[in-house]
């Protein structure tokens, strides 16, 4: 009997006390593999992120010396790989410095208090270190990736250690190819993801302890400022979690002290629902009167989710881009990898259960869908590829340009909703989910590297 109890304690100890260490080891190993092995500029707008990072440390250089435009994609490198002179072209040839005002597309240093500057700060330091090792684009990018990956992985390690519930969600999500590939790059998406994790950390610990302290208020203030200044636009939506959780915690304490019981049943529930519905109808009427074009926008969004206007199997889609493929057009990731990660993330969300107000869950779900609709609405006018006129699929309702990585941080919000102890669906063996996540992380990130290089050489 004692042996069984000790085994249970050991399993719990792994989850509580060692999971952050396991994450850090895996993240560093995967980060090194992807940083060194992946093609240069393997993130969307990779050349632009490199130019911003080098501009910030006064190392502006001419990418055309390597045959690269300040654009996006791996087409130029593809030829170099197939010719067999990729290392010579990108790693042996030194950069050609150029005045910053002559750099196409990004001919200035971004303002210090902006997402461009703050998001590229860690990559810029890494690029500067790489320059002093050997001044070639290849060395600078690889060292910049390594620096970004190690620093970011260490921060995530600390977050996993400090968070009281939801450790497995952060562990699994941070090892997906999309996040691992993002950390091992020069993109500003890394900083936005770290800020999203900090919001999840503070919110979760508030909900678990139900204690509002000055230290937590200060943390909320600091993270809020960083998000306003340094996060991507859609990630700023996560700030809605702070007032939502604080209001509900204060309200629950007030209700307990006053011994007030609010029940919405029968007639009260019907009246309340009608009032809310009336407000929604009036608000929508006012909005559509001010901006009638939104009616067509809503039509396009509905059609986009009701009809598959591009029925062929495309690599550039949200299903792959959410968890499995950082740059779907070039990664050639198999669909089963994405499916496996969806299952693992869902299981990790069902491990930890604790009392949460249903209003927190509903609010979290609302934030998730607001982000979803907001991103789609933001790309309503995007056509891509310089289409003129718009292709028939766009006219009929298809929306182009949105990418899965825009939604990845918001899976943390869904985790808050599913963590409620009122949802009885629960995974008992958290340790099994931990090791499944670790194994899938290793396999899927190796596939990411292999499939990308296979596509460059043979597809």
TrEMBL record:
The keyword Nucleotide-binding does not apply. The chain crosses the membrane at residues 21-41, 167-184, 190-208, 220-249, 269-290, 302-327, 333-352, 359-379, 406-425, 432-458. Keywords: Membrane, Transmembrane, Transmembrane helix. It comes from the Bacteria. This is DUF2142 domain-containing protein.
């Amino acid at each position: 009997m004692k042996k069984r109890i000790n085994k249970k304690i050991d399993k719990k100890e792994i989850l509580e006390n060692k999971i952050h260490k396991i994450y850090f080891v895996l993240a560093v190993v995967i980060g090194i593999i992807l940083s060194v092995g992946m093609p240069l500029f393997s993130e969307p707008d990779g050349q632009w992120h490199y130019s911003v990072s080098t501009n910030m440390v006064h190392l502006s250089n001419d990418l055309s010396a390597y045959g690269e435009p300040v654009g996006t994609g791996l087409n130029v490198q593809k030829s170099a790989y197939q010719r067999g002179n990729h290392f010579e072209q990108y790693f042996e040839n030194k950069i050609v410095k150029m005045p910053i005002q002559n750099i196409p597309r990004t001919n200035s240093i971004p303002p210090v208090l902006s997402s461009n500057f703050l998001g590229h700060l860690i990559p810029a330091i890494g690029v500067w270190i790489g320059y002093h090792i050997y001044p070639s684009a290849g060395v600078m990018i690889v060292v910049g990736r390594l620096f970004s990956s190690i620093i970011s992985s260490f921060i995530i390690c600390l977050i996993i250690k400090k968070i009281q519930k939801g450790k497995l969600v952060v562990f699994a999500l941070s090892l997906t190819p999309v996040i691992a590939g993002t950390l091992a790059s020069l993109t500003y998406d890394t900083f936005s993801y770290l800020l999203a994790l900090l919001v999840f950390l503070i919110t979760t610990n508030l909900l678990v302890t139900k204690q509002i302290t000055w230290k937590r208020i200060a943390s909320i203030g600091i993270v809020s400022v960083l998000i306003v200044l340094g996060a991507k636009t859609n990630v700023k939506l996560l700030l809605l979690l702070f007032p939502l959780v604080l209001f509900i915690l204060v309200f629950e304490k007030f209700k307990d002290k006053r011994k007030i019981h609010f029940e919405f049943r029968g007639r009260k529930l019907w009246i309340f629902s009608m009032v809310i519905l009336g407000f929604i109808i009036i608000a929508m009427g006012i909005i559509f009167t001010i901006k009638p074009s939104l009616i067509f926008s809503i039509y396009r969004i509905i059609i986009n989710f009701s009809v598959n206007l591009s029925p062929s199997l495309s690599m550039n889609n949200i299903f792959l881009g959410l968890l499995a493929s950082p740059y779907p057009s070039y990664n050639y990731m198999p669909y089963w990898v994405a499916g496996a990660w969806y299952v693992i993330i869902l299981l990790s969300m069902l491990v930890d259960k604790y009392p949460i107000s249903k209003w927190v869950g509903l609010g979290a779900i609302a934030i998730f869908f607001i982000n979803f609709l907001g991103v789609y609405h933001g790309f309503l006018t995007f056509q891509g590829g310089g289409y003129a006129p718009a292709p028939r699929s766009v006219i009929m309702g298809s929306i182009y340009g949105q990418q899965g990585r825009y939604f990845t941080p918001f899976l943390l919000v869904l985790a808050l909703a599913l963590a409620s102890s009122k949802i009885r669906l629960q995974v008992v063996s958290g340790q099994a989910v931990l090791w499944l996540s670790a194994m899938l992380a290793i396999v899927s990130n190796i596939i990411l590297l292999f499939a990308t290089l296979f596509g460059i050489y043979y597809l």
